[in-house]
Amino acid sequence: MTALPLSPKPLPKPPSKPSPAKRKNTKAIGDYFEQQAVEFLQAQGLTIIARNYHAIDAKKIGEIDIIATSSQTVRGRAQNTLIFVEVRARKQMTHAQFATSLETITPTKRRRIIAAAEHFLQQSPKFAEYDCRFDVVAFDVDEKGVSVPQWIVAAFLAY
């Protein structure tokens, strides 16, 4: 009796893109946390001037979740700051090998946010004299679904 060679069946390829239902759910979750971040930032005294800003030139440059302003008086002078905010939400994992929501902002993502901010400033010259910074509002959701916003001021620099 001769054994026939086994030809393993190829594994099905994972879908390259999430299903429409999963994308819709992911967007709804993202919208929820962006709204939570807006309410949190407004409670801290920031003025929201834009949400989901898409920088599009000849190609899509990037997107900024929230653009806000802050005005303070320092030594008798008004100091205006334009704040570009990235919102991140992620389930907390008990294992150390999983990244927190803040750690998911890759160098590529930072470059895209910075490029989108530059695009915004080119399109909005009235903010040319404002100081600028890049903040993150992160939500790490625990197993009970509870999350507290973590506001990281000047989370990264444009260089």
From TrEMBL:
Ranges annotated as spanning the membrane: none
Signal peptide start-end: none
InterPro entries: Restrct_endonuc-II-like, tRNA_endonuc-like_dom_sf, UPF0102_YraN-like
GO molecular function: nucleic acid binding
Ranges of biased composition (kind: Pro residues): 7-18
Region (Disordered): 1-25
Recorded family membership: Belongs to the UPF0102 family.
PANTHER family tied to this protein: UPF0102 PROTEIN YRAN (PTHR34039:SF1)
Protein name as catalogued: UPF0102 protein NCTC10293_00599
Native organism: Moraxella caviae
